[in-house]
Amino acid sequence: MQRLGEILSGFTRRYLPDSFIFAILLTLVVYVMGLVFTDHGPYQLVLDWYGGFWNLLAFGMQMTLILVTGYALANTAVVRRGLRRLADWPQSPGQAVALVAFVTGALGLINYGLSLVAGALLALEVGRSCARRGIKVHFPLLVAAGYVGLMIWHNGLSGSAPLTVNTPGHFLEKQMGLLPLTETIFRPFNIVVALVLLFLSPWILARMHPTGGDVAEIPAALAGSSGDGAAAAAEPPLVSGGPEAQQTLAERLENSRVLTGLVVLAGLVYIVSAFAQKGIAALDINMVVFIFLVLGLLLHGTPIRYAEAVADGVRSASGVILQFPFYAGIMGIMTSSGLAAVIANWFVAISTPLTFPFWIFVSAGLVNLAVPSGGGQWAVQGPIVIQAAQALHLDLGKAVMAVAFGDELTNMIQPFWALPLLGITGLRAGQILGYTAVVMLVAFVVMSVGLVFLP
């Protein structure tokens, strides 16, 4: 299994370019397919492409904010202190790896942006703690454990596809209506799969810890409590201005806890009111973003600290910001030309009611290599999947989660979302993907069984 993981990571390093290049290549592939399989000509397909290019601006902003607010929350002093305390718990290399994987996975079920950043910071702190205590832990494996939350995030509360179809006004609402979370995230098959992977992944990663002289400990540049470069990403943002007596009016406003308190108070009033009136149905994309924004403001304390944390997080969301218009353009070609209906009929032709979720899952895993954003993938694949499911009179909730499972699975060999983690820890993608690929193979079996056989 370790050898297979090395082969898979070598493949990704050699053949998978930047995800933006994939977005362009996928656009060209869909354009050619439109020429071959529909009656739209070259010029009409260009019009279809531009006609859809700006249709996902609101959705793209929602996806960006999910990542950025989670990132800002993970960079609060309270969260960092908690991570440092956790880092002293492990008493062996295997325990260290398992701890990082479990915490990262649990956070992934809450918010993938939070998991990404907190997983990286926890791997860093555990590596430092082990180095201080003389525990020789393999740092690349530790960092790989900090990425595993991206393999189960779509099962959880920030899942793009299930939250989107539960949000009024979503781009497929006319086609399928609203689908409550009780039909997606809170289904038995999804809960079982999430819990199995949450506990199984740490065990697998811990079992892969090298023995003998193959242990690559945390680099000396990162081993101290603070440092330059990547380590500095873990340090808290600075508060503008000097002592209070010397602050200007602008600086006083920037560091005002009163302003923050007013926003937090108003936010809490709305959140409590919404859940009191609607229950779990209140939890859509907008509510998830709003909850994390309010919590982030509360824990950062001042407006300027939160603004600086968000500015830091925007860098990690640059791929989403750039690529979403291209995904929307792809969707424009597929829907306007009728290509989505053609592909949907292909799935109908090879599927039975039993195997349909499995084939959607497999196809979504492949599409994720080219469209690493969960929201972007749903924008591209959602119209096809829903149309095919409706043609077969099948469970729409399971169809949505089949896309979600495929999207998250191949993150373990797609380094796009690992970029913030790699930046914080100073590693290369090839140093961790071999380990995560092994976990992916086991997860493939678990997810397949859950989709096909569980209710």
TrEMBL record:
Pfam families, sorted: SCFA_trans (PF02667)
Transmembrane regions listed in the UniProt entry: 20-37, 49-74, 94-123, 135-153, 185-205, 258-276, 282-299, 320-348, 354-371, 432-454
Keyword line: Membrane, Transmembrane, Transmembrane helix
Gene Ontology, cellular component aspect: plasma membrane
Membrane is among the record's keywords: yes
InterPro entries per record: SCFA_transpt_AtoE (IPR006160)
Full protein name: Short chain fatty acid transporter
Lineage: Bacteria, Bacillati, Bacillota, Clostridia, Eubacteriales
